[in-house]
Design brief:
The structure is a single chain. It contains 13 helices and 20 strands. By secondary structure, it is an alpha/beta fold. Helix 10 crosses helix 11. The N and C termini lie far apart (70 Å). The protein binds nicotinamide-adenine-dinucleotide. The site of nicotinamide-adenine-dinucleotide has 20 residues, from loops. Nicotinamide-adenine-dinucleotide (NAD) binds next to loops.
């Protein structure tokens, strides 16, 4: 017999221990070749004072095994604690979140009987970089970061995933009609990589219409790849409309590890009653088996689970008279799956898994561009409210080698030639270029800032304006 594969397991909080016990019982009945390292996470660990809900020795296990089967935890209310999920994802570099959403019609109620879609969400970047600042009395900022390596890795992963599973179509959602640089990069990388996969049909949609289509005609999608925030939203929509929110598992995957979990929480309202549905965690465990190279076991267990669903043995959350045959407890459900190991569904599409983890996605840094400093945006906290006055004052104090080009308020140009109807906050972006339209040196910007400081202006941040190989690396003001 091959060496046992070590995986780290956390029983979690609430219904976590019950559904983990049921899941491990099924894995044992299927004789999977795993050995478990149990760790504590969640409520108890938070209470001990570990602000991320995990102890240092647990990290050692996670780094040793690189594979984590995680039951849901209860997130403590209030400040001072950090999200365990975000911490694990970011620390282990789990850049891809994969969430299959599928209907099990006619056995489980669903609005969309034919939905069968996989959402692949970028997991580390975007507005989730967690870089937020309050800049004035009235304005707060969250920084949206999209990188080329981050985009290339997730998009390449999505193409590989689509091809590996024999699927035909990959869709990308962005909002690049508005965020031309950040979402524009994600879209551009999607188009570039698409050329390497001529066997896969590709499409791009603006995220608002894409989400509307997902809610209305989800059967038109096979695999969808998205930046982090849109992915967070669309994966919940897709899971919800499939009717299987309590039965979906998800994988978080990176080059150095992977975490598998149900998408639901710790359900404290039903904890300890023995009635929770273990399906979400079980399907996550099935994905884990495929990931560690036990595709045969994954196929065996998934098909037994589908047969159990088809046979109408349902836990209370999905039980429905007319669709279900018997309402079962967590343990009865697990026993029913164990009894069906070796059987396949008759109506639902049987599952098959490709063995082994996805190939590592290598990133090749592109040659550096010619980067030129051509201007600066200086953001001011200024309360007087009249853009004409601000424009006049700034013009009167700017050094002679500098030209004030425009002022915007919340992105809209208000000087020169703004509209009196535009509402202005206390947060002003003032764009300066060299008077001769040449290049700036950093010292020119320092000199400009010291002039502003001497005149008592509260500058709250600067953004340098660069050209990369002659192309502007900044957006125009709205209305410019
Ligand atoms: P929840 O998903 O725990 O529960 C929502 C509803 O769905 C409840 O009525 C619950 O009884 C039901 N439900 C959920 N899973 C079920 C299952 N397997 N079988 C039967 N019914 C099920 O969401 P919530 O109530 O908003 O959150 C509870 C706790 O879980 C919170 O502390 C939250 O922060 C945490 N949470 C953790 C994770 C995670 O660890 N990945 C994810 C989401 C929420």
């Amino acid at each position: 017999m091959a060496d046992q594969i070590p995986v780290t397991v956390a029983r979690g909080d609430g219904i976590g221990p019950e559904i983990m016990q049921a899941t491990l019982a099924i894995l044992e009945a299927a004789r999977v070749n795993l050995v478990y390292e149990f760790i504590d996470i969640g409520e108890k660990v938070y209470r001990e004072g570990h602000t991320s809900g995990i102890r240092p020795d647990a990290w050692e296990s996670l780094r040793r095994t690189g594979v984590f089967l995680k039951a849901p935890i209860t997130t403590p209310q209030g400040g001072g604690v950090k999200s365990l999920n975000v911490t694990i994802r970011k620390t282990l570099g789990l850049y891809a979140n994969i969430r299959p959403c599928q209907a099990y019609d006619p056995f489980i109620a669903t609005k969309h009987p034919h939905i069968d879609v996989v959402i692949i969400r970028e997991n580390e970047e975007d507005l989730y970089a967690g870089i937020e600042h309050r800049q004035t009395d009235e304005v707060y900022q969250c920084l949206k970061l999209i990188s080329r390596p981050g985009s290339e890795r997730i998009i390449r992963y999505a193409f590989e995933y689509t091809r590996r599973r024999g699927l035909k179509k990959l869709t990308c959602f962005t909002k690049d009609n508005i965020m031309k640089l950040t979402d524009g990069l994600f879209h551009q990388v999607f188009d570039e990589i698409a050329r390497e996969y001529p066997d896969i049909q590709t499409e791009h949609m603006i995220v608002d219409i894409g989400m509307a289509r997902m809610a209305d005609k989800p059967e038109q999608f096979e695999v969808v790849v998205v930046p982090n925030l849109y992915g967070d939203i669309i994966s919940d929509i897709a899971a919800e409309i499939s009717g299987s929110v309590g039965m979906a598992g998800s994988a978080n995957v990176g080059d150095h590890g992977a975490m598998f979990e149900a998408i639901h929480g710790s359900a404290p309202d039903i904890a300890g009653k023995g009635i929770a549905n273990p399906s979400g965690l079980l399907l996550a465990a099935v994905k884990m088996l495929a990931h560690v190279g036990l595709g045969e076991s994954a196929t065996l267990i998934h098909n037994a689970w589908l047969k159990t669903i088809e046979d109408g043995l349902h836990t209370g959350d999905v039980f429905e008279i007319g669709r279900s045959r018997k309402k079962v407890t967590t343990d009865e459900f697990a026993a029913a799956v164990c009894e069906r190991l070796g059987e396949s569904p008759r109506i639902l599409r049987p599952a098959t898994y490709v063995e082994g983890p996805m190939p590592k996605i290598a990133y090749q840094r592109q040659p550096s561009t010619k980067k030129e400093l051509v201007g600066v945006d200086i953001f001011l906290d200024w309360k007087d409210g009249d853009p004409e006055q601000l424009g006049r004052k700034l013009n009167s104090i700017t050094p002679s080698n500098v030209r004030l080009d425009m002022i915007t308020n919340r992105g809209v140009k208000v000087w020169p030639g703004g509209f009196p109807e535009t509402f202005c906050t206390d947060h002003w972006r003032c764009r300066f270029f060299p008077a001769n339209n040449g290049l700036f040196k950093h010292t020119d910007i320092l000199f400009l800032l010291s002039s502003l400081a001497e005149q008592g202006y509260d500058f709250i941040k600067t953004e340098h304006l660069y050209r990369f190989d002659g192309e502007a690396g900044y957006s125009l003001g709205q209305g410019q």
